[in-house]
């Protein structure tokens, strides 16, 4: 069965991302075309990148990197749930991505952003990063506005329209993850 990791990309106290990631997981868990797992960066306690050798060499030395690599390697695709901080993604998510290389390769990725303009700029930055890591980013995306998809900028209340957008992201991510299976096997 195709496995998709839903990566919660914020570690900030009081983060809105926890409610968003749980919503993504709850919607995804109703599906039968893949298995989904919520991956919270808080559970991995990754410091700032502390590997002496570049990740593309695959010679990890730190126990936290090895644990993170095993988790990411276990998935066929991902949905990144990202806040937008200062026109980009969170430092925590970028750092977690930067720890690894081959574990990301030849897999699909979809995006759920949230912020003042729905996290659009964070998603655009992640698309550039995905290309370098040989992650195939799907076209559809979910952009959640703090003004319209949250009450008082903090209580998450997604509309039916957003659930439909999420379904499209999940459809594309699962489909591309399955299609890339032969590429992963050949690599």
What's the layout of helices and strands?
Elements: E1 3-8, H1 17-29, E2 35-40, H2 63-73, E3 77-83, H3 91-98, E4 107-115, H4 120-132, E5 135-145, E6 150-151, E7 155-156, H5 160-179, H6 181-186
Parallel strand pairs: 1-2, 1-3, 3-4, 4-5
Antiparallel strand pairs: 6-7
Rg is: 16 Å
Instruction: State the shape.
Output: globular
For the biggest β-sheet, the strand order reads 2-1-3-4-5
Percent of residues in beta strands: 15-25%
Largest sheet composition? 5 strands, parallel
Helix content: 25-40%
Q: How many strands appear in the DSSP assignment?
A: 7
- The H/E string reads EHEHEHEHEEEHH
Overall pLDDT: 97
Structural class: alpha/beta
Offer a quick outline of the entry.
The protein is α/β, with parallel strands linked by helices and 187 residues long.
Structural write-up:
The chain has 187 residues and is an alpha/beta fold. A hairpin with a 3-residue loop joins strand 6 (150-151) and strand 7. It has helices spanning 17-29, 63-73, 91-98, 120-132, 160-179, 181-186, and strands spanning 3-8, 35-40, 77-83, 107-115, 135-145, 150-151, 155-156. A 5-stranded parallel beta sheet has the order 2-1-3-4-5, sandwiched between helices. It is globular, with a radius of gyration of 16 Å.
Record keyword descriptors for this entry:
single chain; 187 residues; alpha/beta; 6 helices; 23% strand; Flavoprotein-like_sf; NAD(P)H-dependent oxidoreductase
């Amino acid at each position: 069965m195709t496995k998709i990791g839903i990566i919660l990309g914020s570690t900030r106290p009081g983060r809105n991302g926890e409610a968003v990631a749980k919503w993504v997981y709850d919607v995804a868990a109703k599906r039968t075309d893949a298995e989904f797992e919520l991956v919270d960066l808080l559970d991995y306690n990754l410091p700032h990148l502390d590997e002496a050798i570049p990740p593309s060499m695959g010679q990890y030395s730190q126990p936290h990197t090895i644990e993170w690599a095993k988790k990411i390697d276990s998935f066929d695709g991902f949905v990144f749930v990202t806040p937008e901080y200062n026109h980009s993604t969170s430092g925590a998510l970028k750092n977690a991505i930067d720890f690894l290389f081959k574990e990301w390769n030849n897999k699909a990725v979809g995006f759920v952003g949230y912020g003042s303009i729905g996290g659009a700029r964070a998603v655009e930055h992640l698309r550039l990063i995905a290309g370098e890591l040989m992650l195939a980013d799907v076209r559809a995306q979910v952009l959640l506005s703090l003004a319209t998809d949250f009450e008082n900028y903090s209580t998450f209340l997604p509309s039916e329209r957003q659930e439909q957008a999420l379904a499209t992201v999940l459809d594309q991510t699962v489909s591309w993850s399955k299609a890339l299976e032969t590429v992963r096997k050949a690599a």
